[in-house]
Write a structure and sequence with these properties.
globular, mainly alpha, 377 residues, MetI-like fold, single chain, two-stranded antiparallel ribbon, 15 helices
């Protein structure tokens, strides 16, 4: 009997492998194979000569394209695009998650025509970024749209340049980029370390004590011993021209965040709310102390999804501001211009790989966290 069961399990395993094998081969070739090819191309000089030749010459030059992007003074636009991508991600996360949670809490109560409001808030997500960009390009036009709102109340119209402003705030010197990143990392490491000390997690305490120590060592001492990244100071910051694009993106995806949070709120047992109310909690305390903390897995998933979307805003930016507007730039736009206008395929591949690595910073920790949770179950 045991032998029969063993043979049955082995047969099921073989059948499962055979069923999955075609998909695994296709994914291996058309996903990971192309990713590997892009990494290889980024390590060559393809595009310096006749890039569009039938048999182009590709010489291996190592990390030269990456060094050029981050340290050559000509590539100031790429570095600003990278800074823009960070701000796009941060503000898109804050805007969509904050507004989505607010809408979900409003609809979590008994509301007449709830289905109608839910559909209205969720509908923008059904539109493509091109359609959204076209609509919002009219709304953020300097001579109309949002700038005419004050006239409804008898006030002078605004003159803000939503996607063409040249002003910026939160400026910093690119020479200090490593120190800034490590200062932010040190802050995160310190929070994790404090929580680990409170929970008496020895392994986490040791690991993040080392991380925090190394980060502070570089910030306080080592950066003074190394040569500057650029031969001159280079200012970067938050371009106000990106505000119009951020408003359009938040408008489109806040409904999706609302749907995620509504699913989480509706999944909470009604007994939890009833118990909280019996203990004297009001609506604010219920959501702040009970409901929202229980939505942590939803928030984590939403962060990963929205961060991934923020790295794929090519079509929205292209539709609203065009590819040549440096104030609203994004690495994906820069990759398009470098690859298909300048025909510098190697440098365009390097930008693509950088975007891939940035996306991995969000996705891989999420996958590790999800795997650990499944193992715990």
């Amino acid at each position: 009997m045991a032998t029969f069961n063993s043979l049955g399990k082995r047969k099921d395993k073989i059948i499962s492998i055979l069923v999955l094998l075609p998909s695994m081969i296709l994914v291996g070739i058309f996903v990971y194979g192309f990713i590997g090819n892009s990494i290889w191309v980024s390590l060559t000089d393809w595009g310096r000569g006749a890039g569009l030749a039938e048999h182009p010459v590709k010489n291996f030059i190592g990390l030269e394209n990456y060094r050029f992007l981050f340290t050559n003074f000509i590539q100031g636009r790429f570095r600003q695009d990278l800074v823009n991508a960070v701000f796009y991600t941060v503000f898109l996360l804050v805007g969509t998650l904050g507004l989505g949670l607010f809408l979900a809490i409003l609809l979590d109560r008994p509301v007449k025509r709830e289905g109608f409001y839910r559909t209205v808030f969720l509908y923008p997500m059904a539109l493509s970024f091109i359609v959204t960009g076209t609509i919002w390009r009219w709304l953020v036009a300097p001579s109309g749209g949002l700038n005419l709102i004050p006239k409804i109340f008898g006030l002078p119209k605004w003159n803000f340049l939503w996607v063409s402003s040249r002003d910026s705030i939160l400026n910093f010197n690119w020479q200090n980029i490593i120190q800034i990143i490590l200062i932010i990392a040190s802050f995160v490491f310190a929070i994790i370390l404090i929580r680990a000390i409170m929970n008496r997690e020895k392994r986490v305490i040791i690991k993040f004590s080392i991380f925090l120590g190394l980060s502070l060592l570089y910030v306080l001492v080592l950066h003074r011993l190394l040569p500057p990244i650029l031969p001159m100071e280079e200012a970067h910051g938050f371009n106000l021209a990106t505000i119009g694009i951020l408003i359009a993106a938040i408008w489109q995806y806040s409904g999706y965040a609302m749907a995620l949070y509504m699913a989480g709120l509706r999944a909470l047992p009604a007994s939890i709310r009833e118990s909280a109310m019996l203990d004297g909690a009001n609506e604010f305390i219920y959501y702040a102390k009970i409901a929202i903390p229980n939505l942590r897995p939803i928030t984590l998933s939403a962060v990963v999804i929205m961060a991934h979307i923020s790295l794929k805003m090519f079509d929205l930016i292209y539709a609203m501001a065009g590819a040549d507007n440096g104030n609203t730039g994004h690495p994906s736009i820069n990759m398009y211009l470098t690859t298909f206008r300048a025909n510098n395929f190697a440098r365009g591949a390097a930008i693509a790989v950088i975007l891939f690595i940035v996306a991995a910073f969000f996705i891989i920790p999420y996958m590790i966290h999800s795997h650990k949770e499944r193992q715990g179950l």
